[in-house]
Amino acid sequence: MPGTTTDLRRSLHHAGYYPELVGDVLDVALAGEEVLGHLVHPETTFDSAEVRRHVTVLVLTPTRLVLAHVDDHPADAEHPSASASATTESVPLAHLHTVSLTHVVPVPERHTPGAVPAELTLALGWGAVRRIDLEPATCGDPSCDADHGLTGTSSPDDVVVRVSAQAEGAEAVRAAVAFARALSAASAQAGAPRP
């Protein structure tokens, strides 16, 4: 897995989304700490005939997970020129509660060990953001029309990155799997009790 600052810069340039800007904001957040691994995930979305680009970068250091999100902002009546906003967040590895991976594998009966999944979703949680899904509660009586309130689930939703072989290529999925493996190992070590 790419794990140096030089490899990170190379990946930022390969993604092609303001690599110098993204590199500079990461440099501030990393504060000279060693880069053990990274995942650069550019994404383009379409919103009301408007194209918007953004990139999410995850960087693993010996002590932290550093995240950067950079988004385009098109020109409008209030802002005559386009701009970008860049946000970084640093999470101590000991605070990382969950590293959740969803592997999507087509034709699972033909899966071979080590084969790259068609898609990988990496969901990380450290308690800063939670997603709440609510629905009307019922009592099981089909003729009951009483209000039973709401029921639902609350789940961590700090960051979710989905990498697809069809959209980004098998190599991007392979890189995401390698980063997820390294992050899982690092978070397990950070959470292990000290002798």
Walkthrough of the structure:
- The strands form three sheets. The protein has a four-stranded antiparallel beta sheet with strand order 1-2-3-4. The protein has a three-stranded antiparallel beta sheet with strand order 5-6-9.
- It has helices at 5-15, 19-30, 165-168, 170-191; strands at residues 37-47, 50-60, 64-73, 83-92, 98-104, 119-125, 130-136, 150-156, 159-164.
- By secondary structure, the chain is an alpha+beta fold.
- Helices cover 25% and strands 39% of the residues.
Gist of the model:
This protein is α+β, with helices and mostly antiparallel strands and 195 residues long.
Highlighted features:
single chain, four-stranded antiparallel beta sheet, three-stranded antiparallel beta sheet, 4 helices
Calculate the terminal CA-CA distance, rounded to whole Å: 30 Å
Largest beta-sheet characterization? 4 strands, antiparallel
- Beta percentage is 35-45%
Mean pLDDT score: 88
Helix content: 25-40%
Instruction: Please mark out the parts with pLDDT under 50 across 5 or more consecutive residues, or reply none.
Output: none
Count the E strands. Answer: 9
What is the radius of gyration?
Answer: 20 Å
Q: Which strand order does the major sheet show?
A: 1-2-3-4
Label the overall shape: globular
Given helix and strand content, the structural type is: alpha+beta
Number of helical segments with 4 or more residues:
4
Element order, helices and strands? HHEEEEEEEEEHH
